[in-house]
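> agent: user asked for a holo structure of the chain below bound to 2-oxoglutaric acid. Plan: (1) validate sequence alphabet, (2) canonicalize SMILES, (3) run complex prediction with ligand conditioning, (4) return tokens. Step 1... ok. Step 2... ok. Step 3 dispatched.
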Amino acid sequence: MTKQTHLPVPTTPATTTQAFPPDFHRKYKNRLPVFVKGHAELRAACTTVEGLRCLFSATGGLPNEGSGGARVNVMKALDGENFLDDERYTEPVSISVEDFIGHVKDTNGSERGRMYYRSTLPESLKALLAASDILDTICPTTSDATEKQAFVHRSFSLARLWVSTTGCVTPLHYDKCHGLLVQLYGRKRFIVFPRDDAGSLYLHNGITGPTHASRVRAVDKIFENAARLHRGDIAQEETIPLQQQIDNFLDSYPKVAKTTPYVIELDPGDILYTPPGYLHEVASLSGSVSVTIPWDMCPDELDDRPAWMAF
Ligand SMILES: O=C(O)CCC(=O)C(=O)O
């Protein structure tokens, strides 16, 4: 077999500027990521830096009002960069809310200052999201109001708030549910691969790491460098070291050359739908606040799951 020396150039998934397209369930659900750019209602309600303070005072996990003011438990990555909710990757650290907000606002973001706060959704955010039309458009296509209400209630009870500082990465992994990532403050870059690419993305075996996570790191950066080489928008002296970096990567992970990545940059007001089983890596390009709203696979989708998703 000839060795591949290049990586594919990522594309952007189906993009829409209004909530979810009417044919979402038939055409995209469980088959393709969908990117909603600049959802008008959400954009109007997006978090400002001041809003961050309110978010914290409204969050259940928070504060410990001691003599030094409110404190919050955040995660620090053991390698300084990659954050998974697993003690092999992160450790809890207590920090004052004011200091944490300072780190979130810091656009330069030193490695030492990288921290991630993850929690359930404060009621204020639930209300904000419930008032938008997002959930209506992704609810099961049923006219049964009780079924819809149960869907919304369950999705909100499982929803997660993500507050990160510049440079935090959620490494390549997949989820067993459908998910919307709603961006409220700052920017994130999301690289995502179709479910069939999982066999080329080196999942852990449960001993070396969790089975829903990949061994491959910094996927976004390597694809970004490959795309720059492809476009030729780099200085001459950078060409050889970058090609060398890609060659080394492909020596370690040759199957990644066969994947079909999508890359999406999320700004406040943007929403990304990711189907179950699609591996993704998420990098915070600045301090960021986002929310994930998940929902379960239906019985047909569970039956249709590949063996590697059953564990
Ligand atoms: O935003 C992040 O850092 C991770 C989000 C994620 O993995 C998800 O929404 O499934």
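> agent: step 4 complete. Summary for user: The chain has one domain: 14-295. The pocket of 2-oxoglutaric acid is lined by residues 162, 170, 175, 179, 181, 188, 280, 282, 290, 292 (CB under 6 Å).
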